[in-house]
Amino acid sequence: MAASGLPISSGSAGPIPPLARAPSRNQSFQRNPSRRVLFSENPAPKHLSRNWDSGHESNNFPEMPPKHQARNRDEDNLSEISTKPRARDWDSGDDVKRERRGRRLCCAWTSLVVGFLVLGLMLLGALSLSFVKGALPEFRIKSLNISRLEISKKETNTLLTADVQLLINVTNKNDRYDMSYSVLSVEVSSEDINLGTKEVAAFKQNPKKVSVLNVSTEVKKSVVDDAAADDLKSNYKDLQVVIDVVFEGSVTVNMEGRKLSGLPLKVLCTSIQQVDINNGLQPQCRVKMFHFL
Prior knowledge:
single chain, 293 residues, alpha+beta, 7-stranded antiparallel β-sheet, 6 helices, membrane, NDR1-like, transmembrane, transmembrane helix, Late embryogenesis abundant protein LEA-2 subgroup domain-containing protein
């Protein structure tokens, strides 16, 4: 062995190099930061593999998205999942459609029933109206007599005294039903001048019968307009007085044991001319049971 302490192999031209010293315990557990091993089932991206193959020439790893972008992406994924139709959603949609269809069908039937009811009421009203019109009595002025007409002056007032007699024919045109009349109030006027009022007692008519009503009215010293009084006096002398007669009351129709009681009755005899009655005419009055008839 040489003085240097190194073994010299026999037959060798030079000295044998020293053996490498075993690493210490601390050195054996130190990691080389320049070498890292990635374990992944997916192959590394091409640009990353090139970097590794080239001896880590570059540390350009894929850039990770910001946190808010990742959070938005997660929310979008959740919204897509929540909006996907499910079997329960399809079932509920079918239920809603069936419910709407049932409602429409119910409304259609209700409208149809209401329409039939309205049509039935209209037909019933038309039949009743035709019956009522056919059952209306007939009023005609048979005679008119003004037995007294006096006009006097008192201070600044014009006073009228008059007596009027009327005969009215009331005919029950119906051949099956009786007519019963209540007390009728009668008002007679001429050119807006009141010639008196009267009440006619209640009476009854058999089918196809004619009743004659005797109506007498009078006024005594009634204040009237001067010009109207002069016109009335002139027409009275010429037998050309024009009068209006109004009857109001009620009537009951006896229909073979059944009754229509208390039907309103109003008779309008308007513009009745004395000259026509004196010539033998019997002007007909308008009979109303309701305001719309």
